[in-house]
Specification:
Largest sheet: 2 strands, antiparallel
Strand order of the largest sheet: 1-2
Number of domains: 1
Structural class: mainly alpha
Number of strands: 2
């Protein structure tokens, strides 16, 4: 019975992912979301139409290349050498982009890094409400501030660049984690090499490394928590338990969205427990929960003790849900950040979490009533919200650099990346690449579902499960493409599997067709020779 529950869990994760993948693939072929740094509104969202047939033609050309020579090439390449070259390429590309831009923090990242600079000299005025309410609204941001403070104490004036180097190393670590998961899930040299091959085109996280925030570093640690949890399932070694728990704990310190990955890790370990009944899984779940949920409050507590203040719990989570269900000034970005529903309401409530939450729940009841009463409004709202964040092929990776100040005068190439031909070329490539990945990821999940052995393979459900967590969280809470720049990478191993399988099936099918055709021709010739009259 437990095995059936586990198998059903795998099937449900894959089936639900497939539906969303197909939707995203179709939309990426038909439309594109563009983030435009307009003078009146730097976060302008524009929906544009794509040429469906040209997109399909480009994908078909790549597929034919895969069929004719990439398929055989990927069977021969050494994945260790190929993977190492990818990691070096990722680091060098990220380093070059950061040296060309030399961005400095702004907005949230400025508040955090400026506070860290104060903390490093034992100045805690950023934690005093009369001076700054930022950490009263977002106490969880003290996790990333803690990393920034350490960097300031060690590297001083070079801190901004060091934080960007950490982002570059994080993008390398994410790529390495995806390669390991691809190997565990599909156990195929060819699929692993296709994963590496597609990762060479995944420039979005690399371009995103200029952003002084915990998105990349938090996700990198979280993905290695997934890797160690998978290795625990495969090899049953005790030491993978603290490694996984520590990684998810650090990931949660750097970015609270890592709690999504924490839930995914616990679900995967539990589904495997239903099959194997290994006590190690339960211990791993318990330790991961303790580390994932408990470490960041400790960071906050030590800052409260150092500053002799009490920050409270910050803006209640229900207010973020309220904001995520509301319209904004731009019809193309529903559910995006709006302080009216979060920090301003919290301030109006005199930082009383219960009072603010009651107001939020009242709003939610009214808004859900509106959405429940109109199917067309419900479809319009959630479709626009989904497309605004998932159909941006660059996931704001250039935008976060363009809208931040720089320590140098930006050169001609960088300006071209922002507003010129270079940026247009990169956007066009990313647009095609996104469609390619979405289409073959959907094909990959479909093929997994068609194979009983594959759909019961728990490692095949890991990446779709993490994706589902991110997808539904941002469907209901705050939306923004930059939050999904990391989740997009989860499609790549699945796309590699789909691409590899389809290449093999087309190749084998074509060979079988030619063989049958040749056999029929030979039989006809033999028949004609037998039936021919003698002279």
């Amino acid at each position: 019975m437990c095995c059936k529950v586990s198998s059903f869990g795998n099937w449900f994760i894959l089936a639900l992912s497939l539906l969303i993948f197909v939707f995203l693939a179709l939309q990426s072929l038909l439309n594109t979301t563009i983030m435009y740094n307009a003078p009146e509104d730097p976060s302008t969202v524009i929906f544009t139409h794509d040429n469906f047939y040209i997109n399909l033609l480009c994908i078909a050309v790549v597929f034919i290349c895969g069929l004719l020579f990439l398929r055989k090439l990927m069977e021969k390449i050494n994945p260790k050498i190929f993977g190492a070259s990818l990691l070096v390429y990722t680091f060098v590309l990220g380093l070059i982009w950061n040296l060309l831009t030399k961005n400095t923090p702004a907005h949230d990242s400025w508040f955090i890094t400026a506070a860290a600079e104060s903390f490093a000299v034992n100045d805690y005025t950023p934690l005093i409400l009369s001076e700054n309410d930022y950490f009263y609204n977002y106490p969880f941001q003290l996790g990333y501030a803690f990393l920034c403070e350490i960097a300031v104490r060690i590297f001083g004036d070079n801190t901004y660049f060091v934080l960007q180097i950490i982002n570059i190393l994080s993008s390398v670590a994410i790529a390495a984690a995806l390669i390991v998961i691809a190997k565990l899930a599909f156990d195929s040299r060819k699929v692993t090499n296709f994963t590496i091959f597609f990762l060479f085109g995944c420039i979005q996280p690399v371009l995103f490394t200029t952003f002084h925030y915990g998105n990349l570093s938090g996700f990198a640690f979280s993905m290695w928590a997934v890797v160690f949890a998978c290795l625990l399932i495969k090899k049953r070694k005790w030491y993978y338990i603290p490694l996984s728990a520590l990684c998810i704990g650090i990931g949660s310190i750097l970015k609270t969205n890592s709690l999504i990955v924490l839930i995914a890790v616990c679900v995967i370990l539990f589904l495997d427990f239903l099959k194997k009944f290994s006590v190690k899984n339960i211990i791993a779940i318990a330790l991961s929960l303790v580390m994932g949920i408990g470490l960041n409050p400790l960071i906050i507590y030590q800052y409260e003790q150092r500053a002799d203040v009490s920050l409270g719990d910050g803006v209640p989570m229900v207010l973020w849900l309220d904001m995520g269900l509301q319209e904004t000034g731009n019809a193309n970005r529903p559910g995006w950040y709006n302080p009216e529903y979060t920090v301003l309401r919290y301030a109006y409530s005199e930082y009383d979490g219960e009072k603010a939450a009651e107001s939020g729940w009242a709003d939610i009841r009214e808004r859900t009533g509106e959405l429940a009463g109109s199917a067309s409004e419900r479809a319009r709202f959630f479709t626009a919200k989904t497309l605004s964040q998932w159909n941006d092929p660059l996931y704001m990776s250039i935008w976060v650099s363009e809208t931040r100040p720089s320590r140098i005068e930006r050169g001609e190439f960088v300006q071209s990346m922002y507003t010129g031909n270079a940026g247009a070329a990169v956007r066009n490539f990313a647009n095609f690449y996104q469609s390619l990945i979405f289409v073959f990821a959907a094909a990959g999940v479909l093929i997994i579902l068609m194979k009983k052995k594959m759909r019961q393979n728990i490692f095949c459900a890991v990446l779709p499960l993490v994706f589902l967590g991110g997808f539904f969280y941002h469907l209901l809470f705050e939306a923004m493409p930059q939050y999904n720049v990391t989740y997009f990478t989860l499609f790549i191993p699945l796309a590699a599997y789909g691409f590899s399988e389809l290449c093999d099936r087309c190749h084998d099918g074509f060979r079988a067709y030619l063989k049958t055709l040749f056999k029929k021709k030979k039989n006809i010739e033999s028949t004609e020779q037998v039936s021919a009259p003698e002279n």
